[in-house]
Structure formats: C-alpha cells, structure tokens
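[Automated response] Your request has been received and processed.

Submitted sequence:
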Amino acid sequence: GGADGLLSVRYQTVAGTAKPGTDFVHAEGELQFGPNETSKEIGIEIIDDEYYETDETFHVELISADTDAIHPYGARCLVTVIDDDNWGMRVRRLLSGVRARMATNYYTTASWADQFRDAVTLSGGEDEATGEAIPPSAFDSIMHAISIFWKLLFALVPPTPYLGGWAAFVVSLIFIGLCTALVGEFAKLFGCAVGIPDAITAITFVALGTSLPDTFASRTACLQDETADAAVTNVTGSNSVNVFLGLGLPWVIGALYHTTSPRGKGRYEVPAEGLAFSL
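Generated structure:
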C-alpha cells in the first residue's frame, strides 16, 4: 500500500467537443511511478487559431494493468480549452468603445461660444499618448490663416447637444451642399477661363474637390484602427450616399412632382446634355 513499489500507468487523450488535430495534439504514453512518487505531469499541446469558438472539452484517460492502482471514478480527467479569442474580441470592442467615447468628448461642443473660440484659436493639436497640447508649427499657422473663413462659417452649425444632434446633422448637410455647389461653380468658371470643356472639368476638378475629404477621412480611419474595416465602411458608405441619396432623392422628388401635377402643367423634363450635366 501507500506509495511504495513500482507502478506504470498508460494515458491517452479522448476527443470530446475539442477535436485532435484541430484543437489539441493527440497524446498517449506511459508514466512510471517509483517509490514515494505520488504525482506526474502530462504535457498536451493546445492548437491556437484565430477563429471564434466557444469553450471546448476533451478527456485524458488513465489505464493501468493493476486495476487497484486507479480509482474507478478517477480514471478520466476533463480538460476545458478556454476560448481566449473571445476575450480578445471583447477587449478590442472595449478599446474601440473607449476610443469612440474619447473622440465624442473631444469633438463635442456645448455652445456656439465654444465653437467660435475653437475656430479662431491656433492650435497644433494634442499628443494622443500623453494628451498634452502640441505647439503649433509654421505649417499649422499658414493653414489656420487660409482656413479661418471656413472655420468661422462652419462654427455656425448648431452644437451637437441641441435636439439630440439632429440640428447639427441637418445644418451640416445644408452647408455641405452649399460648399459643393460653390466648388462646382468655381470649377466651371476656372474651366471657362482656361478653355477646358465642362466634361473634363466635371470629372477632374469637381470630382477631386468632392472626393478628397473622403480620402483623408479614410486615411485617418486606417491610422486609428487596427483593421481597414472603418476605411472600407467610409468609402462604401460615402459612395452609397452619393449614388442613392444624392441622385435618388432628387429624381424621386421630380417623379412625384411629374406624377401628381395636373396634366400639361407640371411636366418635369430633364434635357440630355451629356456627362457634365449628369455629374
């Protein structure tokens, strides 16, 4: 009795919800217990992957030639493989939520006074790691002088707390529409002055002026996110809004006007003037 004498015990892994070759490496062998030895360690390799899975289990079974050496209810050990990928996803979601909350607090203003103060203040930004203010550079000063008119103009947008953010959303859309029309008119005047056809102006200067903000927004999203999901979403969403809302909404309004107006009085005709008119 006790721990005296020699004893050999065989062991092997038995698949459960965890499968050998996919979740762990199958192991089997023999353990030798000498005098006064009461414990041994069995090494089993767990296979890590990047797939989302729930916790899985398998068994380690002990087999002995001496049936009295192993307790009949202790011949199997349940091993649970904890899903650390799930915890990783939770941590990434938590960090993403914290970044979003910090960005919301950073860009949210409580009053028009704060917006005009931020518009006229020359700043070099903040260090993302320490949160300390960065002194403005010469380039920051030049860009501030060039864009001061636009900063003051967009400071007229209602602060985000008003009406749950809807006031800022609607007024921002109106301002963006006015800026787009202004860019289109200046591009048309520029093309007329240098002798560039409207079609070429439309697919170069106008397209460039309306697409550059999306380009910089996608770049910022790529730098701040671990994956390219935000950048792809920004590009896809922007183009979807341009096509389905920017083109679809005016045509829906025109079709409804054409359909509901008295015959011969509300005719909605669109002349086919080529690519420039469409753009």
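Summary generated for your ticket: The longest helix spans residues 229-260. The chain has seven helices and four strands.
If you did not submit this request, please reply to this message.
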